[in-house]
# Entry
Amino acid sequence: MKSIRLAIVGDIHGYWNKYDVNILQEMIQPNHTIFVGDFQNEDTNFISNLQNTMNEHNLPFTCILGNHDAWATTIDSVKHITTRIPPYDVNKVNNIQKSLEILSTNHVGFSHKNISTLNLSIIGGRPCSWGGPEWSNNFFGAPAMFYKNIFDINSFQESANIITNEINTSKYKNKIMIGHNGPTGLGTERNAIVGQDFSETGGDFGDPDFEIAIVNAAKHSNHHIPLCLFGHMHHLIKPLKHKDEIWHGDQGDGNRIMCMKKDNIVYVVSIIYIYRSIDRL
Ligand SMILES: [Zn+2]
# Structure
């Protein structure tokens, strides 16, 4: 079987510049690069610049938007939350749609891409995921309202149906799943690959819809799903002693499981252990 080299880039939150592109091009030399979301807080200029730079260097990529890529729009869907006001009038500007138009076929959230040169299809889970088992109670129901308003989706099951359809209609037998957050079913420990480190008792913070779609697809012999990539849970494990304090990612006291195999699928979360202070694009 022909091997391919993939680069996974997660949760860059604005930290991306020409040196990162150089590392990709000169050192990693991937056949394909996958961004698993959280480029910046709904910054369409940042997304546009990043894409232009990747194109200029002939670095093909696929991506899925993260919760921060819908940050202001999501919060705005709950009118009584006034702590974070969008920097624009959401009634006049649809930054989600704008992001999707900029990225076009490079974005596979609720979609897929067939790559003939790699004999591979890449299928995206639910874009802009905040993670967790609650559809409507998560953060005052903001994500649920966001999905209803933007994607006309009202439940995990409806979302799972869309992802399943994308798997079934993708061209190649070899399929890679990508999400902003990982699926449920991969452990409940605080340091599990999608574990709730922010809860004293841990818990599974995966996307149930993502698990439903992947597990159902993996049962069929016409799908070969060797890999599932995601981000979102990208910090060191939060120390319990700091649970009531403002916590910064570099103060963690343990490693999250970054990679695991279950039912012949390898799951990888992109983790950032060091915050960099470098120029933005
Ligand atoms: Zn995120």
